[in-house]
Amino acid sequence: MSLTISTMLAVAGTGTGAAAGGKVAQAAPAAPGIGGALVALVLVLALILGLAWLLRRLPGARLGLHANDQLRLVTSLNVGTKERLLVVDVGGEQLLLGVSAGGISSLHRLSQPLAMPAAPTMPKMPDFAELLAKRLRKET
């Protein structure tokens, strides 16, 4: 039994194993081809164009970029799949607008402005250091 194991080890150490390793190294490409680089370039350009198109299509994507004090949306109400009622504050005057697939029309000028909704506020969170000290005191 020991003779066969030593014979196998001797055969593995000869040129047969080295030749197999040489074939693997010869089969591996040295560098990626120009075709792969062109495919990657086309994919990156398609991704950029797709994201630009998506950004244009998203409603309100540009609202955060251009804050305007003279024109402000007070409230909106969906009345159908493509119809909405909007109350818009324009320079201190509020207008009721109807928005549909066919266009936008002014429905009414409000004599008494609606109250601007308050911005939602987050509840006061306890300080992390206090929570940690409390937890450490509890466990000891």
Automatic annotation (TrEMBL):
<dbReference type="GO" id="GO:0044781">
    <property type="term" value="P:bacterial-type flagellum organization"/>
</dbReference>
<dbReference type="InterPro" id="IPR022781">
    <property type="entry name" value="Flagellar_biosynth_FliO"/>
</dbReference>
<dbReference type="InterPro" id="IPR052205">
    <property type="entry name" value="FliO/MopB"/>
</dbReference>
<keyword id="KW-0472">Membrane</keyword>
<keyword id="KW-1133">Transmembrane helix</keyword>
<keyword id="KW-1003">Cell membrane</keyword>
<keyword id="KW-0812">Transmembrane</keyword>
<dbReference type="Pfam" id="PF04347">
    <property type="entry name" value="FliO"/>
</dbReference>
<feature type="transmembrane region" description="Helical">
    <location>
        <begin position="37"/>
        <end position="55"/>
    </location>
</feature>
<keyword id="KW-0966">Cell projection</keyword>
<dbReference type="GO" id="GO:0005886">
    <property type="term" value="C:plasma membrane"/>
</dbReference>
<keyword id="KW-0969">Cilium</keyword>
<comment type="similarity">
    <text>Belongs to the FliO/MopB family.</text>
</comment>
<keyword id="KW-0975">Bacterial flagellum</keyword>
<keyword id="KW-0282">Flagellum</keyword>
<dbReference type="GO" id="GO:0009425">
    <property type="term" value="C:bacterial-type flagellum basal body"/>
</dbReference>
<protein>
    <recommendedName>
        <fullName>Flagellar protein</fullName>
    </recommendedName>
</protein>
